[in-house]
Each structure stands twice: as structure tokens, then as C-alpha cells.
Amino acid sequence: MKEKIIEYLANEDFKELKSFLSDANEADIAECLDELDKNDQAVVFRLLKKDEATDIFARMDPDTQENLIETLSDKEIASIISKMYIDDAVDLIDELPANLVTRVLDNSSVTKRQAINEMLKYPEDSAGSIMTTEYAQLDEDDTVEDAFDKIRRKGVNKETIYTIYVTDSGDRHLVGVTSAKDLLLADPKTKIKDIMEENVISVTTNEDKEEVAKMFDKYDFLAMPVVDSENRLVGIVTIDDAMDVMSEENEEDFEKMAAMAPSEEDYMKESVFSQYKNRIVWLLVLMLSSIVTGKIITGYENAFEALPILVSFIPMIMDTGGNCGSQASTMVIRALATDEVEPKDILKVWWKEIRIAMLVGGTLAIVNGVRIFIQYHDLPLSIVIGITLLFTAMLAKSLGCILPILAKALKLDPAYMASPMITTMVDACSLVIFFNVALMLMNI
Amino acid sequence: MKEKIIEYLANEDFKELKSFLSDANEADIAECLDELDKNDQAVVFRLLKKDEATDIFARMDPDTQENLIETLSDKEIASIISKMYIDDAVDLIDELPANLVTRVLDNSSVTKRQAINEMLKYPEDSAGSIMTTEYAQLDEDDTVEDAFDKIRRKGVNKETIYTIYVTDSGDRHLVGVTSAKDLLLADPKTKIKDIMEENVISVTTNEDKEEVAKMFDKYDFLAMPVVDSENRLVGIVTIDDAMDVMSEENEEDFEKMAAMAPSEEDYMKESVFSQYKNRIVWLLVLMLSSIVTGKIITGYENAFEALPILVSFIPMIMDTGGNCGSQASTMVIRALATDEVEPKDILKVWWKEIRIAMLVGGTLAIVNGVRIFIQYHDLPLSIVIGITLLFTAMLAKSLGCILPILAKALKLDPAYMASPMITTMVDACSLVIFFNVALMLMNI
Asked: Which of A39, A268, B129, B383 has a CA that sits 20 to 30 A from residue A340's CA?
């Protein structure tokens, strides 16, 4: 598709391009626009159907939006903003540099500007920050007929009318919820209050947006009503925004679990230097611990000077410890993220991991014991390695499950208690075990 | 809520419990039922409103469903199945043991049984396997009025009527799509073909379900039409099922990246032994590689016999290499999963990682060089460590970005080319670098 557009641009047959665009899907067009170069972006954007332009604009990358805001006329900007949903407008403002922000606000209606400023007040990770203030809403005393009229009149510029919220005649308190489906199936004369579902699940503007996303997963909602402290309806979170929050949180966890500061940027778009910043901090922190490990080893110099072969097992013991630990920590971190495990379960989880560790460690011990005996015909050595592996596995899995839970209990992010952190901790301990077992059993 | 239910059960005031349940949310009830013990589950389930019971049943854990199927009467089972959506029924069948499967099928209508068997034919990861065959569908020649009648008649037992699919009068070919919203806003006399959106995005029954989930994310759909090879509409995938696929895939990636065989079970529910099985295989595989690393070290015995201090740096070099590598691999694996990076980008990505590696490695080299010089007043040693760290970082980040991309190119799962695999590979190489640099610069 991108190729096609570029071709049209090259041959300057804009009429063709225009009709081509009018048939294409908006999400696809937005994707292509992101990949075009600055000047073409404006050209193509101006060829879009007026009623589709705003929707496409909202789907574009921040850089593309910024670039267009720079090139478009005030009139064009005004028409985009006027059609834009509040939550999309707020996302735009969040990303733009100050000078362009003023340009956008100057070209938006007073009411729009007020609405945007309202939204910008909500804390960054709150439900308020991702909600939209455009939603279908009815009075409990409306009849189904009234409802249809209201929707016909206002419906078009509401972000979703599939879930319709019902407020009391007085202070817009949220009292019920109904759906386009129920309205279609109900008798026109019935009152909304008689067909609405009364126990409404809602969140307050300050609710953590991650919690809100989880509720979508649990309740299979298409939209979640957001109320203020007095249970007055102030907005809704739509499922597409909830899905975005979910995948954001996932990406962040992947990055944290690999010892990186999470970043909002896409991998290819993020600069080398900012990736460097995200990665170096943790590497330096983790390196500190290996100073300890180093010191420990020097403490056992006599051991491996007498028996240099011991050194050759250090990598195997360290890696196995690290891998056992990261298996446990990954499982526990995810279980914590999905609220399947809570801090109070710490002993249950630990007991589970200990049993797994005994099975895993036992197997590794036997397999290696045999292998080493065959390789070196040295029974004490294979016993030493076997015992070390068993204890290392148990230690690694214990740390791997306990540390994330402790982190959660201390209101820290469990995701940082993942592979890299666990590995460096297990290293030191496993080597202590190794050398001591060796000293005991191998008359050094 | 669970506590409340248990209390009601204890005092045997079932009338109270019944009304309590009728006010509660279905998802919440299902969650509580999962946590009650076998007998209570049946008692509570029988107190549910008939019209809610099926929906709640569909939301329960497989074990709870199985347990209820065992205890409920044929008549009760029949009434559940009759109200159940096809895709939920198929999920149920998938989880049940053979004897209960027959029990369920015997108690479902002929048409239902045929529909279920149809669905069971689709390959496990295909769109067909997660679609439902209940959807709102219109003929292009219907008027908006006809549409409302149809929906009023059939609407109730359709899984979603928010997106309505339009087929041609002949062979049910998918020709367009419209929405309850558009119908509400249109003039009753207009023909559907005049208001419908004609370029419909659809998937075939054999499409990979993960790809389908990604399309929901891109197009912000509430449902995706599924067609057969002749573009005949055969079903729809709803957004809640798409979300389930997404989170499944994410959990699997987390597990694969921690060197575990992915599992469908929840952490707490999965038995110790099956967790053991999921973890031990990769540990054994990865252990093989450390045999190599061991051999390498023995090859440099003379080096660390002459200079035992070298041994104490092995952990630091191994860990740093591992951490650098897993940072790169995590970023690239995720970028591959979201289609942001493709195999053809391999050189672009590698060049990016090399530059990051030079910054990261450089910093680590300087920080450690200085530290070691202060600690041991041994300039050659700090230079050796510095150079080793720089090259290790570059090597680790190269492997970390190249291996996942190669895996993808070879149609293997990149997620396995994560931290554990990279670490074990980097270990061997980084030690070779270390000892050779040492031998060169430290006249041993």
C-alpha cells in the first residue's frame, strides 16, 4: 500500500490517490503516513476525506502528528481538533512541544480547551488520564423512545454508544447502565429505569489505570464508567484504551525483567544514547555485587590452587543457579502481576518452589554426577558437583520466589527482582556452597 | 463477597443468599464459585437466576465446570448447554474428560451438537477455533426497518450485535459491515447496502489466532468477521476472546524467555511435577553448553595457576556478558513479536546494538578499570578487565540481537533466544576473550 501511495505521488496523479485513499482503511492509511517523509505526509493528509481525516490523525504516531501540526494551516488544525475526541486530543497535547501545544489550544473552541485542561489535571497513571468525556448518557426517567431521539441527536459524536449510562435526574449520579442492544429489544414506551441494569461497576478518576485494564479483562466490558468522589459520572474508559494500557504494562515488565529502565518509545525509534541510558544504570548496579563474588573466590584461592579443575565448574554452577532462579522469579512475578499470588501466599509459594527445586536439583545432580564420573573417574568430585547443584537449585528457586513477593509487600516493583538480580545474588552463594562442599569432601 | 456466601451457606438462609446473588455481578459470582468447595458449588449454582446461570457457568474455571457437570442432573446440563454460546461450549468440551464430554453432547440439541463438532475440526491455533458462529447478519437488500425486526427477533441470542455483517442475497458472501449505531442514526427506509461500509476487513478460518488478536489492536475492532476460502461468512471473533489470546501469548513468551516450556495452567494450580517437567528440559540443554565452557577454562589452567586473581573476575565477566546480552535479546524479541522489527532489518538492528554496546562497554570498562586500579594498584590487570568488558559487551549485544532474528527467519520461536540461551553462549566466548587478553598483556 505504501508503495502504491509513493507511486501516485511520484506521478502526481492526485485524483487517483484521493479515490485510492477514500477506499482504504483508516488504520492502514495512518500506518503508511507514519512511514512517508515530512512533505508527502502533508500532501497525502490534505487528500483525505474530511470526515476520515481526524480519525486517521488520531491514529498516527506522535512525530507524524507533530510534523503535520507544524505544516498545516490554523484553519485545518481547528477543523481536526474540533472533530477529535477529548482523550485523543489530550494524548496529542501530552506529546507535543510547548510552542505547538499553544498553537493547538489557540485553534480549539473554548469548551474543548476547558475540557482538555480539565483532563490534564488527572495524575498520569489514573483512570482520569485515559478516560474520554464523550459518552452516551440517559436520564432514568427517559423512555426508550426519548433514548433513541437523544442518541440520534447526539450519538454521532459519542465515542461509544454500545454501553449507555443512566444518571439520576438530579446530580448526574451514576445509577444504572443499559445497552443499544437492550434498547432495540425493549418496548418504546418503557422507562429506562425499568430496563437498566442497576448494579453498575465503575471506577473513580484516581483509580490506577492498570487496575482498570484488569477489570476489562475480568468483566468483558466494552467501556468502564468513571465517577468522581461523589459518584457523579464524569467520563468513560473505552476498551481500546484499556488494551493499550495492558500492552504498555507488559512491554514495561519485559524491559524491567531484563534489567532496563522501561521506555515508552519503540525500539527502532529510540535513539542509541537513550537506550544506552536505559541499560547502563542496572549494569553498573549489578556489577557492584560481582565485586563481592570476586572477593569470595579469592578467599578460596587455596582450594582451586590445590585443585585447578574446580575452576572449570564455576560457569556451570553459576549458569544453572541463574537459570533455576529466573524460572522461579518469572513465574512468581507474572502471578503477582495478574493478582493470582499475593504477599500473604509467600509460604505456600516457597513450599511449592522448594519441592520443584528438589526434583530439578536432584535430576541435575544425578545427570552431572554420572557425566563427571565418566569424564574424570573421580567419585568425590562428582559427589561435590551433585551436592552443589542440588543446594544451588534450592537456594536459587527460594530467592527467585521470595524476593519478588517481598518487593511487592514493600510496594516496590517485583519485575526488578527478575533474572539479572537473582542471578547475581545466587552466584555468590552458590560459589560459597561449592567451595565449602569441595573443601569438606575432597581433603584439600 | 466469598465470605458472605459462605456465611449464608453456614446459616442455611438460602433465600437471603439467592437475592444476594441476583444483585451480584456475574464475573464476581463465577470467581467466588471457583473458590468454594465441591458441594457448595452445586448448592450455590442452583440458586442462580436461570438467565444468568449459563453466563456465570461459562466464566468459571474448567475444574469448577467439570465438577458441576458431574453433580448436575441431565435436565440442568441440557438447559445450560442450550443457552451457551458455541465458542464457550467448545471451550468447555476441550477441557472436559471424555466421559463428561459424551454426557454434555447427549444433553445438547442436534443442531448444537453439529455446530460444536464443526468447530472442533478447526486447527488449535486458528481463527476458526476461537470464533463464535452466533452473530448478527443482514442481507444487503434489507431496509433499516427490516434490520431492526431481524435484530429484535434474533438479537437476544447473538453474542454481539454492535457490529453487524452484511452478506449478498446469494451465497452469504461477506459484502459489507454496519453497526447498531449506524442503524439507529439512519432513516428506516434506506437499504442496508447504501449505509454499509463496503471494504470489510476479515480473516479466514485458518488465520493464526495471534495474528487476529494483533489486528484487533491495530483496527480497534469489537469483532472480526471470519470467512471460509470462498469468502462466505462463517463466524466472528469477539474482542474478549482476542484479549484472552493476547494475554495467553504474552504469558507464554515470559515463560519461554525464562527457559521454560510454556503452560496453560495458572501457577498456583499447576502441580509441582508438571512444573518440574516444564523447567528441567531447558536446564539440561543449557547445561550441555557449560561442559564446553568448562573445557575452555581447563585450557587456560596455566594462566590462572600463574595468576589466581584472574579467577575472581570470572563471575563479573560472565554476569555482565549475560546481562548485556539479555537486554538486547529482550528488546529485539519484543520488537519481533509486535512486528516492529522484521528479519530483513537484521543489519540495521545489529548496527544499532553495536553502537549501544560500545557506549555501555566503554562505560563499564572505565568504571571497572579505575576501581581495579585503586583496589589492586595493577595497571595491566585493569586494562585487561577493561578491554575484556568492552569486547564482551559488543559480543553479547551482537548475539542478543542476531540470534532472535535468525530464529524468526528460520520460522523458529525467537522467544527461546532469550537471556538463558544468550548467557550460556556469551559465557564461553567472554572467557576466551578474557584469558587471551590476559595472556597477551600480562606476560604470563
From this structure: B129
Burial grade of B440 (CB within 10 A; 0-12, 13-18, 19 or more): exposed
Q: What's the whole-number mean pLDDT along residues B283-310?
A: 85
**CB-nearest partner of A315 from B217, B294, B364:** B294
A290-441 topology per CATH = Tetracycline Repressor; domain 2 (1.10.357)
Q: Please provide the average confidence, as pLDDT, over all residues in chain A.
A: 87
- The b/e string for B135-146 (b: 16+ C-beta within 10 A; e otherwise) is bbbbbbebbbee
Separation CA A391–CA A389 (nearest Å): 6
- pTM, entire model: 0.82
Which of B132, B280, B355 should one mutate to test binding to chain A, selecting the residue with the greatest count of A CBs within 10 A?
B280
ipTM of the complex: 0.81
A2-121: CATH, from 1.25.60.10, 3.30.70.380, 1.20.120.140, 2.40.50.140: 1.25.60.10
Residue A75 buriedness (CB in 10 A; 0-12 / 13-18 / 19+): exposed
Contact list in A for residue B216 (CB cut-off 8 A) is 243
Picking from B284, B298, B323, the nearest residue to A312 by CB comes out as B298
Percentage of chain B lying above the pLDDT 90 cut: 27
Per-residue pLDDT at A8: 87
Contact residues for A76 (Cβ-Cβ < 8 A; gap 6+): A46
Please, what CATH class does the domain formed by A137-237 belong to? alpha beta
Domain boundaries along the sequence of chain B? 2-121, 137-237, 290-441
